[in-house]
Fold this sequence. Notes:
Elements: E1 8-12, H1 18-21, E2 25-26, E3 36-37, E4 54-56, E5 62-64, H2 72-82, E6 87-93, H3 99-113, E7 117-122, E8 135-139, E9 143-149, E10 154-160, H4 166-178, E11 180-181, H5 182-189
Parallel strand pairs: 1-8, 2-10, 6-7
Antiparallel strand pairs: 1-6, 3-10, 4-5, 7-11, 8-9, 9-10
Amino acid sequence: MDRPRAPSIRFRSGGPTRAELKGVGHGSPAAHGCRHRRLQGGRLPERLPHRPGHSRLPGGPVRRAGGAYTSGWTDRLRAHAAAGRTVQRVHIVTRPLSDYLRYEFMYYEPHARAGEDIRILDLTSRPNPGLPDQDFWAFDDSTVVLMNYEPDGTQINRVLVEGDVEIYREWRRIAVAESVPFMDYVKEHGWQ
Length: 192
């Protein structure tokens, strides 16, 4: 059975921005009641995002008319790289990839080219090396935000972890050590 979502662990140096912490609750998962569609794994939405001036090319990422795909996120990735900050993600997957993961993978190549270190940890034929089934963001190894979702992929809330975050640093170490770079994964397994 295809899981409706796959955990994604993100890390960044430079601390969280005010926008990234907007709406983050403190302490309790019930502290914040935002409900967004999940963009990290989960089911393919009924309608794919579309912006004027963009077109979806079969088998490839969305591209701006007359040029390569760019977005506010790729612009931020380039700015982080230029400032010497690291943005890294480890996405835990099992094959076959869901439609939504294949859709998401379309964006990983341009994100990697813009400076994000995207890694894949495929658990199809191996046991989980001790990582939680919990999405989280870690900033500067000191600030951790849990990303909580419904089984259908709808975001419930984001919760700032208070207290010791050492276990998250250990999970990051394991996730990075056990994963492979996105482009290496795609060369070996494809994503279509």
